[in-house]
Please model this.
Amino acid sequence: MILANVLHRPVRTAIAILAVAIEVTMVLIVVGLTSGMRNETAKRVEGIGADILVQPPGASMFLGLGSAPMPVKTGDVIAGFDHVLAVTPVLIQPGSTGGFNLVWGIDMPSWDRVTGGFVYHGIGGPFTGPYDLIVDDWNAKANHLKVGDTVNLLNHDFRLVGIVEHGKGARMFIPLQTAQDLAASENHANVFWVKCTDPGYTDDVLKSIRALLPNNQVLSVREYYTMMTSNNIPALNAFIAALVGVAVAIGFLVILLTMYTTITERTREIGILKSLGASKGYIIRAILREAGLLCVVGIAAGCLDTLIARKILIASFPTLSVDLTADWAMRAAVLALLGTLIGAFYPALRAAQLDPVDALSYE
Amino acid sequence: MNSTQTHVVEFPVSGLRTGYPHSAAATMEPIIQTENLRKIYRVGKVDVHALRGVDLTVQTGEFIAIVGPSGCGKSTLLHILGGLTGPTTGKVLVDGNDFLNMSDADRTRFRRHKIGFVFQRFNLLPTLSARDNIALAQDIQGNGFNPHRFDAAVETLGIREKLNARPYALSGGEQQRVAIARAVVCEPKILLADEPTGNLDTENSQLVLNMLRALNRSFRQTILMITHNPEAAAVADRIVRMRDGRIILE
Model:
């Protein structure tokens, strides 16, 4: 009976399934995007190869945002500490190309000492002039860039001199001096990356730096990595919860409407069931099973949609990262199922409470 | 199959009513008793007296036709006896159960096990095949699919060839036979038929009436049938005439 009813109105069934699929896709893509971007950022920070990062007092965990720069000389002092192999200053600025693009001003010699240097794709190499630009391969792919192109950045034209393997800090790099000039922050940086002679000395070096700069944000890269969770990113959980709530509300309302119209249309059939002795529980279960079937198909369609949406997103925006996890797929399924059952319960209850004589005479 | 069977079964398969001794004659055991049965509907601010004191006794195995003009309370009486709605006042004993003091859930449970309904408009579920319509009654009863009873009902009503058809692909007579099969597949004690030939041509009407008569005679099925058709009423053992919510003649 359940399957026959579902197939009886294919368009309405398809709409209900689509609503659940959109709900599941929305949840998975929103969570996948936020966690993907977060994890990808954390991996790029880890990929620098430094052991410690030093930021100004009150700095955001979003590197380079909302903090006053520190004198580059501070980095020279840190470089003199025991067990410190190298320190590289970086001045991070928001890009002017739209979106959440950060441009890192780097001092190439010290950057190479800390990171081991860039791996270049094809032709191209390090900076040779003040308005030279290096981008990573994802950025180049996303913006269809090749070595020699001119890129307008921070209201200036930069010449692309190198395309490097992704995974080291940022996606766009310019000379530190240029970044300082453009930001009017001469001889200043807003992050120091510190590499120890051995990672085992990280805690010792941390202590020394904290003693020197008690008010600064001094973290091991490992600590920073663990801080990159949604709990530590301001309002991210609220953002995710809001979008998940909207998605669940869509599924809930569509199922509510679908089952409500179904019940109205089938009033006479419900009367027939009652004349056969169907209890209220039987009718409620039948309607919830029907909604559940729509939901299960919708969840499967939603998972499939998510995989397709992920492919399209990454093909369209190669710098995006969408992490899909079984854990969140399960959570999305449970949310969809709960929304569906709650949405279907009111129509089911109404159906169960119909007077059998009235229902049988319904035209 | 049934050692207590004392009557020649007129149907090809004798699977129904295995729990009853077969006899054409109704024994004097009242299965339905109503006394001063009244039903008042509230329509807007107006009280509508659908039944104004009905006294009726039906013996087990009787085939009764209830006739009367539209609005005389026939259907209301049938709905009350089937537990679809409760009486307002009066006594209603059906198989020993006092409907006046039973909750809606109790009446539903009673109906599930002891009442079969046949309607003028057949009332088959349009999305289900004939097979599933019949099996639905067993599903609702909750004892699982009983192939023996199912086959017996199907053979009795002669609808074996139509089991895979949806209602829209069946003639009126075939639909009504499926509906009767659905009504009797759970072996109810009472079969309530609300103008079962009202939507049928003469030939199919006669076929359906013959089947009801045969169910009554062969399996001692108690049947109450509402009808406007004097020829249909003539098939019954007894005719009860109603007017203005009362029985005027038995």
